Every structure is written in C-alpha cells, then in structure tokens.
C-alpha cells in the first residue's frame, strides 16, 4: 500500500451545476507540454500589503492555507496526495520536475548510467548542509533510500523496487538496480525521495514533528496538524532565487471561509475547490490552474462476482457518461478522460482515446448477454466518505439495470489495499515517473489495482521496455504510449474524469513556475505597497 495515493474528491459542496464558460482540462493537459500562461499580476495592492507583502526588493511572508496540511513531516511516511508540496518547503530531492515534466538537477547536479543501464550514479553539489549542519552527501542519499525501503511505516517502499542497494562515495551515490531502469532520475524527485538529515532521521518519531532537510526553508515552529512557521534557509543551494523570507503554513478552515480569508489578508495563498473559483475571482484574487496528473476512476475487482464476467465489466464501461462527472463536479475546469494521463502529456495514448464511449443501450445488451435481467445485479459501492462521484455512478448504473447501494466505511483503506472490496472509487495525483503511474494502476502488485494479482496481457513486457528505454531516446514517447495502451486493456479500472489543481492567491504574489503537480517557489516574489 502506498499512502501517497489518496482518494480525491471534489467535496460535498460541489452542486450539480454545469458551467460551460470555463476552459476544460484539455487546456490544462496541453499545458504540460506548452505551459499555460495565466494572468498573474504582480502589482501591489492594499490587501497584499496587509497579507505580508514586502518592498520591490522581495522578502515578505507567504501565508499559505492548505487543505493538505501534512499529518507527518517525515518524508518517508508522508508522501501522500499533495502533501509532498508542503514538505518541499523543508526538504529537497536529488532531482526536481521542470515545466515540461522532465527531471532536472536539484541536490544532485548531474547523473549518469553505466552502459548496461542497471546502475546510475548521482553527483551531489559540493558544500551543501542540512539545517542541522550535517553534510548533504552520498551517505545521506544511501540513508534516505534504505529508510524508504525498510522503515516499517514507509509509504514509499513500493516505489523503490528497482533499487537493490546504494553505495556512498563522498558526494557520489551509486544506485545498483535490480533491473535496467532509466526512469530513476524521473522517479526520485520530490514525491518519492525528499532527503532528510541522517542524524535527525535516526529518530524517525522526532523527525516526524521536527523536520530537518536541505530545502529552501527551515521550520521554527510546528503545531502538529495546525500550523508551521518557517524562515528562509540561507544554506539552500539555490537560496539566491528564493525571495520569500517567511512562510506561515496553516491547515485550511472550512472551504467556505477560505476566500474571505484571502480577501481580508489572513492568507495570501490557498488551494481551492472548483466551486470556490467564481467567488475568488469576484474578490479580486488571482485564480490559476496548476498543471497536474489528477485522474479519478471506478475500481473493479474481477476476482469477485459479478466482475468475473467480462461482459459485465464492459457493460459498466459503456454505462459511464464521463461528461456528467465533468459538468457536475468540476464547474467546467475538468475534462473527461479514459486514462491516467491528460491529453498532451508524453504518456497519453491517442489511439486509446475513445475505446468505450457512452452507450447505455450497448451496456444493457451486454448485461443481457451475460445472463442478467434488469435489477439482477446489486452492488455495494464502498467509499471512505460522502462523495458526489458515488451518486453519479449510482445513477448511471441504474439506467442500465444495475442497483448500487453506497456504503461509507471510514476504514475503507484497509479492505481496499487488501483487495477485499469488489467495487469502489479512487483518484490519484499521479507520479513524476509515468512508468510508476502505470505500474501503480495496472501492475500485478499495483496499489491501485483492486484486482491484484491480475494484470492485462502484454503489460509486463510493455512496461519493461519503457524502463529499458532512455528518456531522451527518439522512440521513448512511442514506447511509453504503447505501455499505456497495454495497461488500458485492464478490466480493473474505468477512468472517468480529471480535475486540475486550482490555486487562489493575492495579486501581490508573482506567478509561480508551472511545473506539473508541483509548487515551486523559485523566483517567486511578494510585493508590497
């Protein structure tokens, strides 16, 4: 199980209203290659000054309220959902993701593979230190990998199966791989290997509430689950491009009060739901789309009836009206999807775009062929909390003769990851490594594969070829898309819609780098009056 993969829900405050004036997520997807250019004013305003603005030279305080405030500050434990974005204030990684979605240097200034492709050496920047004064070196990387693989409460062990062992040699970390895998630099960015001081990590319980990293900020005060106060880290390798002096990170209050808090200057930066976007714009705030890999799906267990019948699975596929999810849940910001990647992203497979279009007549026909009369099939849809997605699924399947009862189980994660459920919902924020996203969904041990150990025919060979192909090889996109196509043959997942990351901020905060799924403070300024 990977705690990084958390259910995504638009929340119960999203009413069934269609908004066609908003740009669809197809625009967002294209932005993963040709990045969006939102109108992000950096002009000073009275409200901005009240919210911690500074003079033209930079500085100032970022007042960020987040609905993903970290429950844990040990990066081995808390890689979940969007929380890695907050942890990235404190921790840096070997690599980072740029605006095109590619791995670029972070703590490691360069890396190279051996000729066979089963060993990669990362060369760390010289002279770096963690905030406790310990050196950032190969030994720190070795410790981070070993903790992620072996610590009992690690959420990351399943992501590191390609790494057999690590040798530390001064500023070099040599990763010996269990297979040829050119995805490693892409994988070991913020989401999977944020690196903590080995000295501090010797006591994981203390690290969990007293984080020690080598990132752009250091924590000066932490109220667990509620608030973190940080200051700029002058020892950060790129400190010259960090223009924010202080950060106040708080756990977001009720969604309905966030916009008012932004407007009055209590906060100057927040993630918001699509239902809040209009109010934020009317309040004079900047609302922009942060490119991401969010995708929701219906999870089926083909090892359990009635989904052990392929015709029943196909009936569900044809019964799904993806546009209804977009119209009712995303306020026009979302997009239909039948795969875990947005259009325009290198892993998106155009050939698989519309393989099971909405066709309730065909769905009813397939159920009849499977020997089921209307009303024969009765299913429990088990979810962790109230979710309007579930009501849409219930309604759509009722139209083809399947009766769905929604069951809420707060301990849902236990039966889901144990593969004990037959029918559920899931949504992910994706991975920086497309191969890792694919294996999480379609691999025999994938945490998102409710039908484990099932995997679609041909997927194992297709994903192995992806790992064997260097990221800069001319045929890499074609190889990767073929693996997506093979994965989508899976009968275990029916993808429905994708919804972007929406951010509202004071106009005093300049535009952010549009790195997919990441929040990067490099070059960001907060202006004052």
UniProtKB/TrEMBL annotation:
SUPFAM superfamilies under this entry?
A: Periplasmic binding protein-like II
Q: Which InterPro entries match?
A: SBP_5, SBP_5_dom
Molecular-function GO term, any one: peptide transmembrane transporter activity
Q: Name one GO biological process term.
A: peptide transport
Q: Which key words tag this protein in UniProt?
A: Signal, Transport
Q: Region labeled Disordered — which residues?
A: 1-20
Q: Which Pfam families match?
A: SBP_bac_5
Q: Which residues form the Solute-binding protein family domain?
A: 103-442
Q: Does the keyword Signal apply?
A: yes
Q: Where is the signal peptide?
A: 1-44
Return the similarity comment.
Belongs to the bacterial solute-binding protein 5 family.
UniProt protein name: Peptide ABC transporter permease
Q: Please name the source species.
A: Streptomyces subrutilus
């Amino acid at each position: 199980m990977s705690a990084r993969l958390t259910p995504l829900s638009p929340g119960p405050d999203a009413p069934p209203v269609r908004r066609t004036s908003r740009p669809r997520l197809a625009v967002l997807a294209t932005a993963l290659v040709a990045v969006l250019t939102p109108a992000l004013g950096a002009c000073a305003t009275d409200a901005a000054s009240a919210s911690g603005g500074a003079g033209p030279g930079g500085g100032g305080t970022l007042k960020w309220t987040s609905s993903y405030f970290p429950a844990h500050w040990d990066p081995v434990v808390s890689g979940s959902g969007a929380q890695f974005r907050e942890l990235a204030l404190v921790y840096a990684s070997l690599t980072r993701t740029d605006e095109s979605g590619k791995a670029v240097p972070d703590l490691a200034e360069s890396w190279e593979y051996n000729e066979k492709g089963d060993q990669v050496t990362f060369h760390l920047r010289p002279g770096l230190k963690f905030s406790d004064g310990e050196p950032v070196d190969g030994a720190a990387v070795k410790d981070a990998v070993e903790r992620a693989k072996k610590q009992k409460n690690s959420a990351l062990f399943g992501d590191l199966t390609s790494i057999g062992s690590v040798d530390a040699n001064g500023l070099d970390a040599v990763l010996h791989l269990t297979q040829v895998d050119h995805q490693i630099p892409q994988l070991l960015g913020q989401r999977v290997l944020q690196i903590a001081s080995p000295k501090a990590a010797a006591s994981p319980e203390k690290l969990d509430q007293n984080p020690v990293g080598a990132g752009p900020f250091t924590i000066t005060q932490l109220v667990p689950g509620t608030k973190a106060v940080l200051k700029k880290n002058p020892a950060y390798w790129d400190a010259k491009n960090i223009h924010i002096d202080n950060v106040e990170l708080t756990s977001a209050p009720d969604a309905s009060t966030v916009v008012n808090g932004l407007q009055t200057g209590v906060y100057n930066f927040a993630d918001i739901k699509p239902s809040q976007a209009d109010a934020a714009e009317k309040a004079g705030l900047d609302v922009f789309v942060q490119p991401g890999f969010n995708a929701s799906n219906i999870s089926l267990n083909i090892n359990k009836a009635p989904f052990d019948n392929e015709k029943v699975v196909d009936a569900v596929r044809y019964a799904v009206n993806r546009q209804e999810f977009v119209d009712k849940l995303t306020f026009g910001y979302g997009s239909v999807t039948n795969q875990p990647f947005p259009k325009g992203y290198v892993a998106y497979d155009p050939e698989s775009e519309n393989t099971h279009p909405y066709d309730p007549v065909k769905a009813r026909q397939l159920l009849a062929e499977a020997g089921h009369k209307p009303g024969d099939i009765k299913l429990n849809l088990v979810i962790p909390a109230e979710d309007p997605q579930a009501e849409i699924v219930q309604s759509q399947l009722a139209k083809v003769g399947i009766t769905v009862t929604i069951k809420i189980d707060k301990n849902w994660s236990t039966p889901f990851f144990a593969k004990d459920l037959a029918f559920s919902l899931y949504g992910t924020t994706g991975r920086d490594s497309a191969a890792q996203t694919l294996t999480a969904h379609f691999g025999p041990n994938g945490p998102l594969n409710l039908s484990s150990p099932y995997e679609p025919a041909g997927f194992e060979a297709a994903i192995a070829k992806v790992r064997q192909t260097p990221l800069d090889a001319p045929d890499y996109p074609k190889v990767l898309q073929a693996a997506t196509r093979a994965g989508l043959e899976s009968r275990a997942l029916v993808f429905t819609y994708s919804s972007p990351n929406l951010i509202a901020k004071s106009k005093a905060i300049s535009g952010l780098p549009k790195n997919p799924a990441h929040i990067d403070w490099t070059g960001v300024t907060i202006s004052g009056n």
